[in-house]
Amino acid sequence: MTIPEQIITKIETYQTIIIHRHVNPDPDAIGSQVGLAEVLRNSYPDKTIYQVGSDTGNLDWLANAQAIDTAAYQGALVIVTDTANSPRISGADYQLGAELIKIDHHPNDDPYGDLNWVLPDASSTSEVIIDIVNNSEGRLQFNQAAARVLYAGIVGDTGRFMFNSTSPHTMTCAAQMMTFDIHHDQLNQKMNEITLEQAKLQGYLFDHLQVNVHQVAYLVVDQATQEQLHVEAQQVHSIVGTPGRLKGVLTWVIFVQQADGTYRVHFRSKGPVINELAKRHDGGGHPLASGARAANQAEIDTIVAELSALAVQYTQ
After folding, report:
1. Has this prediction a pTM greater than 0.85?
2. Which domain of life is it from (predicted)?
């Protein structure tokens, strides 16, 4: 029995299924989590299905989490989607279930759970969920609600199909979701939408972005800047991809100061593999898109120096 078949068998065994995703969710975290939840509600209407975690922030238009009592975990199956390592799971109660399943597309450096189904070559965890459903021999069934968020997950994690993880199969999965009349044009417009404050943040980026001789670009968005521009730390994510549009930028990093004074670190690259560097700073992710943490300015300086060394090695 394959692992996806084992996962479906586990799903059919349990009456209560609780689905988690990672903190600071992006469209794929929400898409894979809620997409799976909607598939299960559609396929097994007698089961109790929950989607849990922190608030979805400015993606609340896509879906929201549910608040549940810890008692619900008693004898429940817990599934975590799109979360590379256990510290990033949103909601510590995930450990209280009877069994735990991990479904992901990040490198499987932390194979937590009783069952793991991880496909690092997939464009997104939403794509992985779609494949599980398509290969279930009819035991699992899509509906419009599932298709809507799964499509959004693919669009989000492929950068609107720009990233090298986008395959012909990815496009087939997205096209399949579009057959459910999900108003993909409206979804795309909504995902492309930014506030006036975020637009001003884009201007701040171009005014303050530093690009060194190694084609490494970097920017620090501290708390004072966030207050001045009236943006929250989570909203800064809208500018993470912007430096990649600049000619002469090979790899880049954006440091976003959090309320506790530390920094959330966003790595992106057009070639140099950056996820091992992210791991050295309490993070991880994909070869060309990763996240990490920095404690202070000294660690910021260290990260920029290490990223520059990677760029030099890549171009030699």
Report:
1. yes
2. Bacteria
Which of 299, 269, 302 has its CA nearest to residue 286?
Answer: 269
Grouping H, G, I as helix, E, B as strand and the rest as coil, residue 3 is: helix
Q: Is the pLDDT of residue 280 over 90?
A: yes
Cβ(296)–Cβ(305) below 8 Å:
no
Angle between helices 27-43 and 144-157 (to 10 degrees): 160
292 pLDDT exceeds 90?
Answer: yes
pLDDT on residue 234 = 84
Retrieve residue 251's tokens: 């790899």
Q: Quick one: residue 12, left, alpha or beta (phi over 0 = left, psi -120 to 50 = alpha)?
A: alpha
**Entry field: residues in the chain:** 316
DSSP 207-269: HH-EE-TTSEEEEEE-HHHHHHHT--GGGGGGGTTGGGGSTT--EEEEEEE-TTS-EEEEEEE
Q: Is the per-residue pLDDT at 57 higher than 90?
A: no
What DSSP assignment string belongs to 102-150? EEESS--SS--SSEEEE-TTSS-HHHHHHHHHHTSTTSS---HHHHHHH
Which residue type, as a one-letter code, is found at position 299? Answer: E
| Strand arrangement of the beta sheet that strand 210-211 belongs to | 210-211, 216-221, 251-257, 263-269, 289-294, 284-285
pLDDT band with cut points at 50, 70 and 90 for residue 237: confident
Domains and CATH numbers, the chain: 3-191 (3.90.1640.10), 196-315 (3.10.310.30)
pLDDT for residue 299 is more than 90: yes
Q: What gap in Å lies between CA 266 and CA 40, rounded to an integer?
A: 33
The tokens for 271 are 């070639």
pLDDT single digits (tens) 117-149? 999 999 999 999 999 999 999 999 999 999 999
pLDDT score of 200 more than 90:
yes
